[in-house]
Automatic annotation (TrEMBL):
GO terms for molecular function: aminomethyltransferase activity. This is Aminomethyltransferase. Residues 16-265 form the GCVT N-terminal domain. Belongs to the GcvT family. Its EC number is 2.1.2.10. Keywords: Aminotransferase, Transferase.
Length: 366
């Protein structure tokens, strides 16, 4: 009798047992088993907008590059100028393929002693790792710490006050997209003032033991545990693009509304530069725009967009906005139809419903 090989199960965060204790509804996500929600998506969303919530984002890829002038090497892989990125600062940018398409979006944290931390998407972690390593010089060491470290996102207007009591340094001195190493509850940790919700907040990387301690402490203080559902509604309101939907290898940063990441005049050659130069001079064929439904119908990913009876694009992300009480979406349209106020129709189950292009982000924190 031949015993079939056992199938590997999904990856799980060191905090997985905490999910079960809190009664989380679980969902598969990029090879991981993650919490979709705890109390409910709307409740978790409003907690982040009005007070504070905590997300376990340990599934995100965590790469460390050491030595060999890592930033100089990364300069050739992204369209953003990294030469001015000082230690203690971070930059959001994208990896590009030779056609200028987006392989992934990531945050580059420049640390001390020629060390760089990269946070990438879970779904693209292996591909990103192979791509970046293939361009690294022998003098740069590489490590993947994804499964070695817990990563928590503490987000909301009360995030600083909740975290301040657990650390010894003054968090008011940590500006947006800055980061440092410190002690949290007696444990060494990396902390950055970054996030994916449109609110103030922090992302904290630490050991599994320390992560459990911090999670338990925050929950005991009344911080709301949040899942992937609220993470998606929050980032959509803030018009923060999602890789695999709003950005793909077939879309360029100039098409995806990420012009501010492209520094053609400030830096030299990089992968995908030729395509971006062509688009900068000749224009793009499509643009990612914000869309508001003018009825109660909800636009979802892949729904067709119409104008005067012709299909002109598609929705990439969409859903209800708990903060605004509207149904909102992102989608690609021809540039001549990308101005705010432009009327469109969304096809839903064979029928067309009215919508219009609006400015983004849909929501801005006070």
């Amino acid at each position: 009798m031949t015993v079939p090989p056992s199938q590997p199960g999904p990856l799980r965060s060191p905090l997985f047992s905490r999910y079960l204790t809190l009664g989380a509804k679980l969902t598969p996500f990029s090879g991981w088993e993650m919490p979709l929600q705890f109390q409910g998506i709307r409740q978790e969303h409003q907690a982040v907008r009005q007070q504070v919530g905590v997300f376990d984002i340990s599934h995100m890829g965590k790469f460390v590059l050491q030595g060999g002038n890592s930033l100089k090497t990364l300069q050739t892989l992204v369209p953003s100028d990294l030469s001015r990125l000082k230690p203690g600062k971070a930059r959001y940018t994208v990896l590009l393929n030779p056609e200028g398409g987006i392989l992934d979006d990531l945050i580059i944290y420049h640390q001390e002693n020629e060390q760089v931390l990269l946070i990438v998407n879970a779904a693209t972690r292996e591909a990103d790792g192979a791509w970046i390593q293939s361009h690294l010089p022998a003098s740069t060491t590489w490590s993947d710490r994804t499964q070695e470290q817990v990563l928590l996102a503490l987000q909301g207007p009360e995030a600083q006050s909740h975290l301040q009591s657990l650390v010894t340094c003054d968090l008011t001195q940590l500006s947006f997209f800055s980061h440092c190493h410190l002690q949290i509850l007696g444990h060494p940790a990396f902390i950055a003032r970054t996030g994916y919700t449109g609110e103030d907040g922090f992302e904290i990387m630490l050991s599994p033991e320390a992560g459990e301690h911090l999670w338990d402490s925050l929950i005991s203080e009344g911080v709301t545990p949040c899942g992937l559902g609220a993470r998606d509604t929050l980032r959509l309101e803030a018009a923060l693009p999602l890789y695999g939907q709003d950005m793909t290898p077939e879309t360029t940063p100039l098409e995806a509304g990420l012009d501010w990441l492209v520094h053609l005049k400030r830096k030299g050659d990089f992968i995908g530069r030729q395509r971006l130069e062509e688009q900068a001079s000749q224009g793009v064929s499509q643009r990612l725009v914000g869309i508001e439904m003018l009825s109660r119908q909800i636009a979802r990913h892949d729904y067709p967009l119409f104008h005067e009876g012709t299909c002109i694009g598609q929705v990439t992300s969409g859903g209800p906005s708990p903060s605004l009480g509207k149904n909102i979406a992102l989608g690609y349209v021809p540039p001549e139809l990308a101005s705010p106020g432009q009327g469109l129709q969304v096809q839903i189950r064979g029928k067309l419903y009215e919508a219009e292009v609006v400015k983004t982000p849909f929501y801005r924190r006070p």
